[in-house]
Amino acid sequence: MKVLYVTNGFPPHRWAGTEAYTAAIAQEFHRRNQDVQVLCVGDWESGDACFNGHEDAVYEGVPVRRLKLNWTRADDPFTWLYDNPVIADLYGRLLDEWRPDVVHVTSCETLSSSVLRVTRERGLPLVLTLTDFWFICPRMTLLRSDMHTCDGRTTAWDCTKCLARGSKAYRWPSRLLPERAVAGLLGAVGKHPVLTRRPGLRGMVGDMDARKAFLLRAIEWPHVRLTASPFVRTTYLANGVNVPIEVSAYGNDLSWLPAFPGRTPSHVLRIGFIGQIIPAKGLHVLLEALRLVPDDLRARMEVLVYGNVQQSPAYGEQVTEQARGLPVRFMGAFQRGDRAAVMSSFDVLAVPSLWYDFPLVIQDAMAAGAPVVATRLGGMAEAVTDGVNGLLFERGDAAGLAAHLGRLLREPGLVDQLRQAIPPVKTIQANADELSGIYASLR
Question: Which uninterrupted H or E stretch holds 392?
Fold first, then answer.
């Protein structure tokens, strides 16, 4: 069977949740002697044209083609982010060349929904995994620019204002005009790509009504839609999606687990944070909580932060300053081969994310026997059963998180009690078995 995986980016260039999951699935099918190919984006905003060639590589046995794009050079950047005619033409030629039996898309973020349309036009079996909210949210996360969560049931102006809030295009007229007038002005501007492709408007202002309507149709094109989260499914259905969405938990690549050395005894409670160091992941909430823990308990704690502190430089400076005087160590990013050692370095994982997140690192931690303290939101609340295999706190509630951290020390045996109730973690092999059945049924 020839399977083509289409996604936003791919390791080692990009390594967030979607990329890690796509890599794990592609590698598992490669191990099963299937003919696997990955198509993704490499460069994303450099080069003189919208398309600047491609790069072929092999990543751990899997052939990967990375398209070199510069979305800012598109004739109509706002529209091409979700419906890109250049990608449609390139992708159609690749399908004619590669002739896959099945196409599985795990993200349309960079290549746009054109990959769905062209696949369907070619009559090929098409599977879509919904790893985020891209089809109903141009920011993908349902986290607004003011850092409040959104349910997706918004007007076109709500979305435009969310995207443009920090730009001069919104700020300057909003100082002089009522909001209705600003909405009318930017709505009119959004109809003209000659204006919206200018810096300051590019990617933020456009025909948002058209985006909403187009993507509600595009999500119907796959033959099968999957998501790992019941919350994601419910949210899409509440936003007007009227086609079936199957819920199937992600599988995790646990190939590192045999090398897991276990945890060495420690006189302090070691709290791990693993992820992107950006505001949406909520590291600042964890640091604020640590400062709220009573001094005598905090002296018996240590926070280990794994991630690239330079990913968002301003935020990196903020959390670095916030951590001064606290028992915090910034460990930097780590390679996949180091996962066993990283998972053995902490006793409890903290996941204080501020958006409807469903991070795979929760399952990795649980596979290593580490309870999770997480935000009561989205996929985090689905993975963690409060008081059973972990603890939950309300979104952004540093005091609530501090109370949980203190409780882990005040109640002897609580960590072990939570650890004992961790359920088995679904493996990538089990996930591949399920997908094999889906692919075969579509063929």
Answer: strand 390-393
Token pair for residue 233? 């499914």
The helices-and-strands tally (H runs, E runs) of the chain is 19, 14
Q: For residue 226, what are its two tokens?
A: 């999957």
Q: What residue has token string 């991070």?
A: 359
Between CA 382 and CA 442 the distance in angstroms is 29
Q: Which CATH number fits domain 257-420: 3.40.109.10, 3.40.50.2000, 3.40.50.880, 3.10.20.70?
A: 3.40.50.2000
Q: How far apart are CA 24 and CA 45, in angstroms?
A: 27
Cis peptide bond prior to 12, omega within 30° of 0: yes
CATH 3.40.50.2000 domain range(s) in the chain? 2-135+219-251+428-442, 257-420
Q: Is the pLDDT of residue 14 over 90?
A: no
* Structure token pair of residue 403: 């109370």
Find the length of the chain: 443
- Residues sharing a CB contact under 8 Å with residue 407, sequence separation 6 or more, in sequence order: 391, 414
Averaged confidence pLDDT in the chain: 95
Rounding to the nearest 10 degrees, give the CA dihedral for residues 168, 171, 173, 174. 170
CATH class belonging to 2-135+219-251+428-442: alpha beta
CA 204 – CA 159 distance, rounded (Å): 9
pLDDT tens per residue, range 229-274: 999 999 999 999 999 999 999 999 999 999 999 998 899 999 999 9
Contacts of 175 (CB under 8 A, 6+ apart): none
- In angstroms, the CA 345 to CA 67 distance is 38
**Residue environment code for 217-254, b if the CB has 16+ CB neighbours within 10 A, otherwise e:** ebbebbbbbbbbbebbbebbeebebeeebeeebbbbbb
345-398 confidence digits (pLDDT tens)? 999 999 999 999 888 899 999 999 999 999 999 999 999 999 999 999 999 999
pLDDT the model gives residue 265: 86
Q: Taking the complete model, does pTM exceed 0.85, yes or no? A: yes
- Binned at pLDDT 50, 70 and 90, residue 166 comes out as confident
